Amino acid sequence: MTESLPLRDRYLALIDEIVQMTLQGKISSVEMVYQMLQKGILAGTGEVFELVLSDRLNTSQAQVDSEQDELKKAKANRSLRAIKTIQSQWQRYAQQNKATEAIASAVQEITTASASDRLATFLRIIDPNLKNPLNLSQLQQLGKSLQQFAQFDPDIQQISQGITRGVAAWQRLQDHLVSWMYESNQALGFGGVPGETGPWATWAKKVNSELPQALFRSLAVEQSAIPFVEQHSSITLADWVEIALIFQYLQRGLVNWFDQQAYNIQAGSKLSISTFLTFAVLWSQLASGFQGKAEYSNGCSQIMLQTLRTFAQRPYFPLYGGIFASFSGSYLRDALDYLDEPLRKVERTQEKARILTLLGYSQRALGQYQRSIKFHEQALEIARNAGDRPCEIANLNHLSRTYVQEQDYAEAINNSQRALMLSRQAGDKTGETNALVNLGYSEVMQAQKLEQVEPETYERAISYLEQGLKLSEKSGDIQSKALCVSSLGIAYLVIGQPQDAIKYLEDGFKTAQISGDLYLQGRNLAYLAEACYQLQNLEKSIYTGCLGMYLLEQIASLEWRQAAGLLTILQGQIGLEAFQNLLQQSRSKIISIIGVDGYDYIPKLLAQYQEDI
Fold first, then answer.
1. Given pLDDT bands bounded at 50, 70 and 90, which one contains residue 334?
2. Largest distance between two CA atoms of the chain
3. How many CA atoms lie within 13 A of 74 on its CB side?
4. Is the pLDDT assigned to residue 335 strictly greater than 90?
5. Of 43, 70, 143, 153, whose CB is crowded by the most CB atoms within 10 A?
6. Does position 336 have pLDDT exceeding 70, yes or no?
7. How far, in Å, CA of 366 to CA of 548, rounded?
């Protein structure tokens, strides 16, 4: 009888029918109410029913509250109790049918989307940032449900096949998600011997599908995803969806695993950070590779931004981090550049401000100071408008640090003072620690430039640095401590106290190793080489200089040339043979950190520097 009515009227009639049957004694249990709801509510229309039920409940409650006649009030109360029974059974129904509703809604959205928007619609539906994202079994069910529409549209058939293959591939891979970490001499992260060890090589052996297997093998030998895509121009929509699901579940699986290693200094949050960055970059590379096919390229960018949005919301998002040790491999050296272009299309959100912060300090490590300033200024404005005070303070601190590199010490001091004031107002201890370090560091560098020799000038600056160090130690903030001791070491070197500098720089190197910050590791070693050179400890100067030069060059930081310049001077002073003998004496220590290949690369780097000067 209600089938021909408009939806709201249909549901109002259904509610009234249940109420009347309850009052007449025709409904003897809540199970009968549940069955009537199950039969009467159409899939995908639960929100409409809930609105009608809410209106009916409010009307009945108002009637009970206002009715003066006792008999009528009693009847209204019975009706209200019946409606509350319907409400309780609706909540049960909604809970048990949430997945069915979600899948039905997803199928409707995908099948009614235009051909050009279908993939984007599918990716929006499986976005992990949704309040109730689809789980694996629901995704499987979505694939089966879409299959019913496959005969009408080949694209829907391709998406359905891609889902089925992607889920099956992930089920084969999940038991081997981290097995590569337990291989002999395997470092945690995305490193390893190209083509032999590491995650990509392991996963390549476990998947059955030809294309994902080929992509894993390509990544295992540190090849960019861009030429891979260009060499596989016949990738179908099903192939694309399969790879998308495999990558998404691998990334989420790794992050979940690393997040559970909170007390493991080799893993924990720094490898979660590395995983988010690695997969975001891979999606950006895939987007670049698919430039000739807009649907695929836009889909890659969409997943990349979903990944970064998830990352930006994590409590360990590195507002002050550096280049992390496990974020390695030559194909990732300038990887963060890939994130720049897609981000321009994103609205001015809190997440965007945080990602721009990461881009900014990464560009500083690479020596791209003007680009760094540009990113931080954008992030600062967005963070301020979004009310993200920690991000605002972080960008003031980063601007201070970058202006030091530009030798604009007045601006460096200005930004650090603003960061210090805001951080104390907000109770942001990490921001305060970094602001104190930046203020002290900036003042030391300015005093050196102005050739100020008054002891009190340096004493005040050093006191800021020491305050920052105490704060970092009190809070247990390893990343900030690494910056503090590193800055203290450089400051003591600048004011001509190399013995004190060595103590802090050695501590800075060890702390940066724990935090996983490759840039700070390389920088500490480069300055250690200078301090040791001033004390004429030539063997240690060569050891730390070569190691620092290598690490900085590996992340494409231009600061590797600072260490190379010192080593070249040293080589000229003592002669090539003596230099090589001293380097040979440190061979085992160097190999323990960067391996045989790294050690063999050192003379080539020096030769390259000498050719360039």
1. very low
2. 111
3. 2
4. no
5. 143
6. no
7. 14
Q: How far is CA 506 from CA 398, 509, 532, in A?
A: 24, 5, 11
From 521, 538, 536, 527, select the one nearest 585 (Cα to Cα). 538
Quote the pLDDT of residue 380.
Answer: 96
Q: Please tell me the distance from the alpha carbon of residue 236 to that of residue 225, in angstroms, as a whole number.
A: 17
Listed residue (202, 233, 239) closest to 217, CA to CA: 202
| Torsions phi, psi for 324 (to 5 deg) | -85, 145
Q: Are 229 and 213 in contact (CB under 8 A)?
A: no
Contact present, 444 and 458 (Cβ < 8 Å): yes
* Whether residue 4 has pLDDT greater than 60: no
Distance CA 372, CA 363 (A): 5
Do the beta carbons of residue 504 and residue 526 sit within 8 Å?
A: no
What pLDDT was estimated at residue 42? Answer: 84
Calculate the alpha carbon distances from 346 to 17, 310, 351, 390 in Å: 50, 14, 10, 21
How far apart, in whole angstroms, are the C-alpha atoms of residue 100 and residue 366? 50
C-alpha distances in angstroms, 218 versus 297, 324, 329, 331? 19, 23, 13, 11
The CA distance from 160 to 148, in Å, is 9
Provide φ and ψ at 517, rounded to 5°. Answer: -90, 100
Please tell me the distance from the alpha carbon of residue 336 to that of residue 277, in angstroms, as a whole number: 8
Residue 333 has pLDDT above 60, yes or no: no
Cβ(181)–Cβ(220) below 8 Å: no
pTM of the prediction? 0.72
Q: Which region among 86-95, 394-403, 466-475 has the lowest average model confidence (pLDDT)?
A: 86-95
**CA distances (Å), 129 to each of 142, 312, 317, in order?**
18, 11, 16
- CA angle (498, 552, 495) in 5-degree steps: 20
Between CA 299 and CA 418 the distance in angstroms is 41
**Half-sphere CA count of 449, side-chain side, radius 13 A:** 13
| Span 229-239, average pLDDT | 91
337 vs 360, 490, 519, 525, CA distance in Å? 11, 29, 17, 26
- The answer to whether the beta carbons of residues 334 and 366 sit under 8 Å apart is yes
User: 280-302, pLDDT tens digit by residue?
Assistant: 888 988 988 998 898 999 899 88
Here the tokens at position 300 are 């890659």
Q: What is the pLDDT of residue 330?
A: 39
**Burial label, 267 (beta-carbon count in 10 A; 0-12, 13-18, 19+):** buried
The predicted pLDDT at position 578 comes to 95
End-to-end CA distance of the chain: 90
Token digits of residue 25: 């004694």
- Which tokens in the block code for residue 169? 């591939």
Residue 573's alpha-carbon distances to 351, 568, 569, 591, in angstroms, are: 52, 9, 6, 26
The secondary structure of residue 128, as a DSSP letter, is: T
**Which of 457, 451, 449, 384 has the alpha carbon at shortest distance from 422?**
384
- At 1, the pLDDT band (50, 70, 90 cuts) reads very low
Helix axes 576-585, 587-612, angle to 10 degrees: 150
Two tokens, residue 76: 């209204």
Tokens of 299: 């889909």
Q: Using one digit for the tens of pLDDT, what is the confidence trace for 498-529? A: 999 999 999 999 998 887 788 889 999 999 99
Measured in residues, the chain has a length of 613
